[in-house]
């Protein structure tokens, strides 16, 4: 006893631990390790005060420093069982913070929680409820549902509120509890305490957002609360519920349009205002007056300058973009101002709205505005602006672009913006326009020549895709170039081209050959038409002459013959080989032979290349005499006649092609070449390959795709992509100004279209599947709402009533008293649903079409609070699928008595509505 007192006397408290931790400027980890070791020793003490203090310190260390306290879970349970409230509070805090569904000692807390939930001390009960909401699992929920159900009828509103809130976790972990406690949860919406009502609506709101179909029958109760609510929090939850219900039932949206508009006009709370706006954008888009009021309120709040209001306003306008484009047009100025906002999320939202407003009539002005913003924006948002321009203008074969000359200038401007990283997409669209739109090829070649002549672009890796496309276009259409071929050669052979990637450099060399061939042929027509001999001085000294072009090419391409890239080497050798006949201009015969060779190449290069569909290969018909074997084992008899030499020198005959291929791992000769192959030579080659396999090139080596995949002609119809990092370069602001005069109603040039380019397989969005627990909750809620309200399960049944039985006992705790009911807001007792008026029809004619008969009333049956009868009179109308809803109200004035023990209360009865037919219907209430 004395030792325990000494230990408690010299034990460091939580305050000492916190002060010591704050004073540790260096060596904090050592201090923590020492404190944890001290806590471990103190946990073994039998003194409750020492153990509680140690657990308190450990809880703080876990919260502040992330220390592991799973080893102290049993100690937490021990402290939870202590009688003193101050000690019990520490144990519950530690359990709430460290326990989870897989904690081993969680099963030991069942009886303890059950005891504390039934305690007369409301604070102990509150501790147990709060801890239960954090550590709840399926076993605890099944065991403690009766206690929670009982606490919902407590006389203390503080306990009723907490018990109502914990029901959300109970329903999720244990869906069968819905059949016991859901009716009482609905009854809490009529509670005398506003806090309990808020708690019940909050729980129903969370459940409704997961599966709103099950809660449509509760719409009258929600409407009643919304109509008389003065609490902003309660109104927000109710409006959120209607936001989930109105898309499922259009008539419900028309009913709540008036109250929502009144709320938006008189409310001052921005949270409630924007929740009303969100509900209008979700389910009241057909109500023009509500939509106009929303747009007006959005513009007012976005002008206030609050970034949160701006973001919410842009998000609400985005929801109206498809159904009400006029809402965006009226708010265009406010949206464009948001591009200058410092918040990147607001900028992105504004960009989405601006691109959603783009049409053929305003595409020029919109793109120019975005280009000006892109010039001054940071790198990230600049590339988002440019990507939006490229995607919007290039969609559906440039359907909104009527002036392709203007668009070619836009593409070149995008490539010149310093932060641009979309060189690949710019190059793809330049090639696509050049190939498809013949009338604008001259403008495309002019823009490409400007890109090739700018040396600042060569040092930017992100633009190499655009430069590659520009080089190919200029070489393919060199006759349309605004400058002479010599100037184009100088642009292609400038020293900074060594910075280009090997694949791009190879395209440059191919373009040099094309330009030289075109230049030489035109030179031949000018000077050799009459067999005239060239003067030596003219050939050598004149800039732009054929000999000067040859010398320029040799000087810049000769070093490339030693390039490390094989493609660049080969093309450099090809170009220099074509120049050899022109090295000596005095050798007329050799020069003429060279011109003849270039003439043949010119005929090859003059062929036009058009767009090719990705499905073109599939359209090629197979020859009639072509036989394709899916099973290669059929080749066994063909290969089995050959004797294959093994390393031992013995001959072995393969029984099948599969065994033969697996044994030697090489490609066998084809059928056509098999007859011409010497069996002995083939066997020796096989043996050599088998022995020195590492020195052979792999047969499945990837083939170099040239030109790059994003720039091939077959990729002209693929989606746009983004590429590597950017570099800085000089950008002229005047290039953003479109100087070409606008033509009024200019006819759109013809764009070559492929008949199946829109049939490319896309990536489908994965369909999200609800979890098993959500489905169980939905089924339980539907059963609870569709069953007779007076035949619910009771706590006295011990939660053992089968799910599918039609009989149930009335709960002694589940009845509601009518004393607290407002006389001005009577409850709805009966709701009849008719599919038509049925004028002039007899009752007998309606009998075959009755969906569910009326619930018969007797002295042993009281009408339920919400009794639904579905009657179909067989008439066809526009509202045949929805029906017409009628209400009849009856005020219950008699006091309810506890009849759970009465034998008549256990009589079986029929449910007025079947589950399958009422799961998704709602009455058009209060009409």
UniProtKB/TrEMBL annotation:
Domain Clathrin/coatomer adaptor adaptin-like N-terminal: from-to ranges: 31-576
GO terms for cellular component: AP-3 adaptor complex; endosome membrane; Golgi apparatus
Keywords annotated in UniProt: Golgi apparatus, Membrane, Protein transport, Repeat, Transport
Disordered: region residues: 741-768, 788-927
Domain of life the protein comes from: Eukaryota
Ranges annotated as biased composition (Basic and acidic residues): 819-832
InterPro entries named in the record: AP3_complex_dsu, ARM-like, ARM-type_fold, Clathrin/coatomer_adapt-like_N
Quaternary structure and partners: Adaptor protein complex 3 (AP-3) is a heterotetramer.
Function in brief: Part of the AP-3 complex, an adaptor-related complex which seems to be clathrin-associated. The complex is associated with the Golgi region as well as more peripheral structures. It facilitates the budding of vesicles from the Golgi membrane and may be directly involved in trafficking to the vacuole. It also function in maintaining the identity of lytic vacuoles and in regulating the transition between storage and lytic vacuoles.
Family membership: Belongs to the adaptor complexes large subunit family.
Protein name per UniProt: AP-3 complex subunit delta
Organism: Physcomitrium patens
Gene from which the chain derives: LOC112282600
């Amino acid at each position: 006893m004395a030792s325990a007192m000494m230990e408690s006397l010299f034990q460091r408290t939580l305050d000492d631990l916190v002060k010591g931790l704050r004073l540790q400027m260096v060596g904090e980890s050592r201090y923590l390790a020492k404190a944890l070791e001290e806590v471990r020793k103190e946990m073994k003490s039998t003194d409750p005060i020492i153990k509680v203090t140690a657990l308190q310190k450990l809880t703080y260390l876990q919260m502040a420093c992330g220390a592991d306290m799973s080893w102290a879970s049993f100690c937490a349970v021990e402290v939870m069982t202590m009688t003193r409230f101050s000690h019990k509070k520490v144990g519950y805090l530690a359990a709430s913070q460290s326990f989870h569904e897989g904690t081993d000692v969680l099963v030991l807390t069942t009886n303890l929680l059950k005891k504390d939930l039934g305690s007369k001390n409301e604070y102990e009960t509150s501790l147990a409820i709060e801890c239960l909401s954090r550590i709840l699992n399926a076993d605890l929920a099944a065991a403690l549902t009766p206690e929670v159900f009982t606490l919902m009828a407590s006389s203390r509103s503080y306990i009723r509120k907490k018990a109502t809130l914990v029901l959300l976790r109970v329903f999720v972990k244990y869906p069968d509890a819905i059949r016991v406690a859901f009716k009482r949860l609905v009854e809490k919406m009529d509670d005398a305490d506003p806090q309990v009502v808020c708690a019940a609506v909050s729980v129903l709101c969370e459940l409704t957002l997961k599966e709103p179909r099950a809660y449509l029958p509760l719409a009258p109760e929600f409407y009643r609360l919304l109509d008389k609510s003065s609490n902003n929090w309660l109104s927000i939850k109710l409006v959120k519920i209607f936001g989930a219900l109105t898309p499922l039932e259009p008539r419900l949206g028309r009913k709540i349009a008036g109250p929502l508009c009144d709320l938006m006009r008189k409310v001052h709370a921005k949270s409630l205002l924007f929740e009303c706006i969100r509900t209008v954008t979700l389910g009241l888009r057909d109500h023009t007056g509500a939509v106009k009021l929303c747009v007006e309120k959005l513009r007012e709040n976005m002008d206030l300058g609050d970034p949160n209001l701006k973001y919410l306003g842009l998000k609400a306008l985005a929801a109206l973009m498809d159904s009400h484009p006029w809402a965006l047009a009226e708010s265009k100025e406010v949206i464009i101002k948001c591009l200058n906002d410092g918040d990147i999320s607001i900028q992105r939202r504004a960009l989405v709205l601006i691109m959603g407003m783009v049409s053929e009539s305003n595409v020029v002005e919109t793109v120019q505005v975005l280009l000006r913003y892109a010039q001054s924006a940071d790198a990230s948002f600049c590339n988002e602006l440019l990507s939006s321009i490229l995607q919007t203008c290039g969609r559906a074969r440039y359907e909104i672009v009527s002036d392709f000359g203007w668009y070619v200038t836009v593409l070149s401007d995008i490539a010149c913006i310093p932060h641009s990283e979309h060189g690949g997409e710019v190059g793809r669209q330049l090639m696509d326009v050049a190939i498809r739109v013949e009338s604008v090829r001259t403008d495309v070649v002019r823009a490409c020549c400007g890109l090739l002549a700018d040396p600042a672009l060569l040092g930017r890796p992100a633009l190499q895709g655009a430069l590659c496309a520009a080089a190919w276009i200029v070489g393919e259409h060199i006759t349309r170039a605004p400058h002479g071929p010599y100037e184009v050669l100088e642009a292609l052979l400038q020293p900074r081209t060594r910075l280009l990637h090997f694949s791009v450099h190879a395209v440059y060399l191919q373009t040099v050959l094309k330009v030289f061939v075109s230049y030489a042929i035109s030179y031949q027509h000018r000077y050799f038409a009459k067999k005239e001999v060239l003067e030596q001085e003219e050939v050598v000294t004149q800039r732009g002459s054929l000999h000067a072009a040859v010398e320029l090419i040799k000087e810049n391409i000769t070093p490339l013959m030693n390039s490390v890239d094989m493609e660049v080497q080969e093309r450099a050798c090809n170009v220099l080989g074509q120049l050899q006949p022109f090295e000596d201009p005095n050798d007329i015969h050799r020069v003429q032979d060279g011109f003849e060779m270039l003439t043949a190449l010119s005929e090859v290069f003059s062929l036009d290349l058009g767009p090719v569909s990705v499905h073109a290969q599939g359209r090629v018909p197979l020859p009639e005499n072509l036989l394709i074997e899916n099973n290669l084992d059929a080749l066994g008899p063909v290969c089995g006649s050959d004797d294959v030499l093994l390393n031992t020198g013995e001959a072995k005959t393969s029984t099948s092609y599969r065994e033969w291929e697996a044994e030697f791992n090489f490609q066998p000769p084809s059928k056509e070449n098999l007859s011409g192959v010497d069996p002995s030579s083939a066997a020796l080659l096989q043996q050599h390959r088998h022995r020195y396999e590492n020195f052979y090139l792999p047969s499945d080596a990837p083939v170099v795709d040239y030109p790059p995949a994003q720039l091939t002609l077959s990729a002209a119809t693929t989606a746009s992509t983004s590429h590597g990092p950017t570099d800085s370069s000089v950008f002229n602001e005047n290039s953003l100004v479109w100087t070409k005069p606008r033509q009024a109603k200019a006819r759109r040039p013809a764009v070559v279209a492929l008949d199946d380019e829109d049939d490319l397989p896309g990536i489908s969005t994965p369909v999200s599947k609800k979890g098993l627990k959500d489905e169980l909750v939905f089924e339980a809620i539907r059963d609870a709402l569709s069953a007779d309200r007076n035949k619910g399960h009771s706590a006295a049944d011990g939660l053992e009533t089968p799910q599918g039985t039609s009989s149930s006992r009335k709960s002694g705790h589940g009845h509601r008293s009518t004393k607290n009911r407002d006389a001005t807001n009577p409850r709805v007792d009966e709701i009849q649903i008719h599919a038509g008026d049925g004028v002039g029809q007899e009752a007998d004619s309606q009998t075959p079409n009755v969906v569910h008969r009326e619930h018969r009333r007797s002295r042993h049956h009281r009408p339920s609070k919400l009794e639904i009868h579905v009657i179909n009179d067989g008439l066809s109308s526009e509202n045949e699928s929805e029906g017409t809803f009628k209400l009849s109200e009856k005020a219950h004035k008699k006091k309810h008595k506890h009849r759970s023990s009465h034998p008549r209360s256990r009589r079986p009865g029929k449910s007025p509505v079947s589950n399958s037919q009422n799961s998704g219907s709602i009455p058009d209430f209060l009409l």
